[in-house]
Amino acid sequence: MLAYIGRRISIALLILFGSTYLTYQLAAYSGDPLAGIRESQDPKKEQIMAELTKFYQLDVPPPARYFLWLQKALGFATGTPDFGTSAIMRLPVIDQIAEAIPVTIRLVTAATILAIVLGITFGVLSAIRQYSRLDYSLTFLSFLLYSLPIFWVAVMLKEYMAIQFNLFLVDPKINLVANGITSALLAVVLAGFVSGTRRRVLITLVSSFAIFMSLFYVLSLTNWFRTPGLGIWGVAFLGLATSVGLTHVFAGLHNRKALYAGIASVAVGVAVYQPFGTIVNETGNFGILMLMGALMLSVSYFVGYFFSKIDKGPIIRSSMLSAFFVALFTVADRAMQAWPEYYRLSDGKPVQVDGSYNIAMKSNDFWVNNLDIVTHLILPTTALTLISFAGYLRYSRASVLEVLGMDYIRTARAKGVPEREVILRHALRNSMIPLTTLIAFDIAGIVGGAIITERVFSWKGMGSLANDAIVSQDLNLLMGTFSITAFLAVMATLAADLIYTALDPRIRIRK
Amino acid sequence: MKNDSKKSKKNSQVAVASEVGFEEVKTQGLSQSQIIRRKFFSHKPAVAGLIFMILFTIFVYSAAGIHLGSDDAKITIHGWWQFSHEDILDPGPCADGCPSSVHPMGQLPNGRDYFAQVTRGSEISLMVMVVIGLLGGVIGTVVGAVSGFFGGIIDAIMMRITDFIITVPSILIGAVIGYRMGNLGVLYLAIFLGLFSWTGLTRLVRGEFLSLREREFVDAARVAGASNTRIIFKHILPNSIGVIIVSTTLLLSSSILVETGLSFLGFGVQAPDVSLGVLINTHQGEFLYAPWLFWWPGVIIVLIALSINFIGDGLRDAFDPRQKKQIKRKEFLAKSSTRDAVNKS
C-alpha cells in the first residue's frame, strides 16, 4: 500500500512538472510582457525596459527561464517557496494567493455543500420514484440547469433577487394577486412531491395553497420582512415539524422511540433558547457558537443513546438531526433580530450585488457584520448551487438506479427487509461510492476558483487573480495560481482513487 | 392483450393459435440499427431537440450567409438577411433601438442590426461547438481505445498523459490562446480548445474497451486469426459506439458553454467577430433599458445546449440495451389484472 502511494505520488509530481512547464511556455510565448512600455512615450523608456528585463530575467529564453522559476518556487534558493513578484500589483505572488484563497473558499464552500446535499437528496428521490411525475420534472429541471450559462443566470439573479427584492423591501406589502400567484406556485411544487392517488395530491395542493396564502398575508400584515424573527414558539414549531419529518424519512413514525427521542431533543433546544440568547448577547463570536453547537449535539447523542437498548442507530440519528435543526433555527432567529439594524446600515440595499463584504459597514455587532457577509454570499451561492446541483442530481439518480437493480437488493427485499431499510442501508450506501470521485474533484476545483462567478459578482478570489494575470500578461502571478490549482487537481485524483479502494472492497490495488 | 396484438400487427404476423391455447407470435427480426433508430424516434424530447437543431442551423446559416477564410482571402456567400453584422445603419423607426419591423431583434446603440449580430454570433458559436466536439470525440476515442485495448505499459502511459491534460484547465489554456492569439481567428481557438477537451471521453471509452476485450467474442475472433486492427474496428468499436456517441453529444453541449463562457470573460472570440457569449458580455450592462439585447443570445444558448442534452439523453436510451421500454403504471395494472383473470378461469 505504501509503495503504491509512493509510486502514485512520484508520478503525480512528474505530471505536475510537465503541466507547469507547458503552461509556462504557452504563457511566455503568447505575448510580449513589455508591450505596454514599448509603445509608451516615456523618455526613460529604454532604462525602464532594461530594469524590467533584468528583474524578470526576460533575457533568459522561456524554456530555460522555467527552471529558474521552478528553483525559486520549490524554495531551493531561500528555503521558503517563492513564486516571485507579480507585475501588476508589485507584491509577492504568494501573499496575494494567501489573501485570495480564503475569499474563494468562503465563496464556494456553501454552494458546494448545498449542491451536494440537495443534489443527492433529489437524485435519490428521483430514482426511487423512477418514471413518476416528480422524476420527469426533476430530469427536465436538471437538463435545463445543465444548459444554463452561469454568467447569464448571474445577471438575472442580480436583477430579480437583489435589485427587485430590495425595492420590494422598501414597502414590504404583498398584494393579493402576487400572494395568490406565489402561493399557487409553491403549492404546485409541494404537491409534486406527494405520490399516490389524485385525491391525495389535490388535498395537498389545496391545503398547502391555503396555508401559504394565510402565511404570506400574516407576514405582510406584521411587516415581517422588515422585522423578521421566529420567536421561541416559531423555533419550537419549526423544530418539531422538522423533527417529525426527518424521523418519518429516516426511521419511520412507527418507530416510537426515534420519534420521542427527536421530540426530546427539540424540547432541550427550546429549553436553552433563553439562556442561549443571554450568552450570545454578551459575547457573540464563532467560538461560543461552535461550542454551544457541539454541546447541543452531544446532549442529543446521549438523549438518543439512553432512549433505547437495542437498535440505537436510527434513534440517535433522529435525535441528533432534530438537535441540529433546532440549533440552526435558534441561530437564524438571533441573526434575524439584527436585521433591522443591518437594514438601516445598508442604506436600503440589504441584498448585495458586488464584492465579498461592505467596506463601509460600520458596526461592532457580531450579528450585523455576519449578516453583511451572508447577504453578499446569497447571489453567488445561488448561482453556483444551481449550476452544480444538476450534475449531482444526474449522477446520484443514475447511481441509485444501478444499485437498485442489483441482486443483493432483491435478496434484501425477498427476506422481508422494509423498503426504507432497503433504500437507506443497502442502496444508498453503495450508490454513494462512485460519487466520492465527483466530490473529490469538485473540492479540488473549489480553490481554483470560479472565474466567471467571481468576475460577475466582483469577488477578489483565486479566479479573479488568474483572470488579472492573463489580462495583464503577469507570468509569475499566472504560474502561482495555476500551480496551486494543478497541484490540488493531481492530489484529488490520487485521493479519489484511494478513497474508492477503501470504500469498495471489490477494487484492489495492483501490487 | 389488446395492446399486445395492436403492436404485433405493425411489424409481425400473428400466427395461427396452437392447440395449447395461447397465440404464437412470429416476430420479424430487427437489425440493431433499426432497434436503435426506433427507440430514438420514440423519445419525444430528443426528436424535438434534433428538429430544432436542424432547423436552427439552416435558419442561421441561410440568414447570415457563409464567411470563410481570413481577411486576405475571404469567401463570402451572402445570406437572405438584408444587413450584415458589420453594417452601421441609421437609427430605425424605434429611436432607442427597440425591436421593430425593420430590425426584429432591435438595434445596437451604434446602429448595427441586432438580428444580423445574433445570427452571425450563433453561426460562430455553432462552428466552435462542432469543431471542439469532433476533435475531442476523435482524439478521445482513439486514445481511449488504444489504452483500453492494449493495456499494460501503453495504458499506463496514455492515462498519465490524460491526467496531465486534466491538470491543464481548459479555461486557462483557452484564455491564453484565445486572448493572446485571438487575431488568429475563431477556428484556431476552436481547434486548441478541442485539443484539450477529450479527457473525460477517453476515460469512458477506455473503460468500455477494458471490459469488452475480455469478452468471449473477442477471444473467438482472435482464435480465428483476426488482427488487432480488425478486432478493434470490426468487433469492439461497433459495440462501444453507444458510449462514444453519447459522450460526444455531451461534450458538444458542454463546449458551447465553455466557448460562450470564455467569450464572456473576453478571452474567447475577439472583435470584430461576434459570438453569443461576446454579445451577452457586451450588453449585460444594458439589461435594464434594453433587455432584448441580453435576452436573445442567452435564450439561444440555453435552447442549443438543452436540445443537445436531450438528443444525448435520447441516444443514451436508444443505445442502452438494458433500458427496456418503460411500462406505464396503468398498463401494468391492466396487464396484471387480465393475467389474473386468465389464471382464475
Task: Give a topology summary.
The complex is a heterodimer of chains A (511) and B (345).
Chain A: H1 2-29, H2 35-38, H3 45-55, H4 62-73, H5 93-128, H6 133-146, H7 150-170, H8 176-192, H9 198-221, H10 231-250, H11 256-271, H12 273-282, H13 286-307, H14 312-337, H15 339-345, H16 366-404, H17 407-414, H18 419-431, H19 433-448, H20 451-456, H21 462-471, H22 475-503
Helix pairs in contact in A: 1-22, 5-6, 5-16, 5-19, 6-16, 7-16, 8-9, 10-11, 10-14, 11-13, 11-14, 13-14, 16-18, 17-18, 19-22, 21-22
Chain B: H1 2-11, E1 12-14, E2 25-27, H2 32-41, H3 44-64, E3 66-68, E4 75-77, H4 114-150, H5 152-167, H6 170-180, H7 186-195, H8 199-212, H9 216-223, H10 228-265, H11 276-283, H12 291-319, H13 329-344
Antiparallel strand pairs in B: 1-2, 3-4
Summarize the structure.
With 511 residues, chain A is mainly α. Chain A contains 22 helices and no strands.
Can you walk me through this structure?
The complex is a heterodimer of chains A (511) and B (345). Chain A is mostly helical. Chain A has helices spanning 2-29, 35-38, 45-55, 62-73, 93-128, 133-146, 150-170, 176-192, 198-221, 231-250, 256-271, 273-282, 286-307, 312-337, 339-345, 366-404, 407-414, 419-431, 433-448, 451-456, 462-471, 475-503. In chain A, α11 packs parallel to α14 (312-337), α16 (366-404) packs across α18 (419-431) and α17 (407-414) runs antiparallel to α18 (419-431). The N and C termini of chain A lie close together (8 Å). In chain A, 31% of the residues are buried. The mean pLDDT of chain A is 83. Chain B is mainly α. Chain B has a domain at 121-344: MetI-like (MetI-like fold, Orthogonal Bundle). Chain B has helices at 2-11, 32-41, 44-64, 114-150, 152-167, 170-180, 186-195, 199-212, 216-223, 228-265, 276-283, 291-319, 329-344; strands spanning 12-14, 25-27, 66-68, 75-77. In chain B, strands 1-2 form a two-stranded antiparallel sheet. Chain B has a two-stranded antiparallel ribbon with strand order 3-4. In chain B, α4 crosses α11 (276-283). Chain B is elongated.
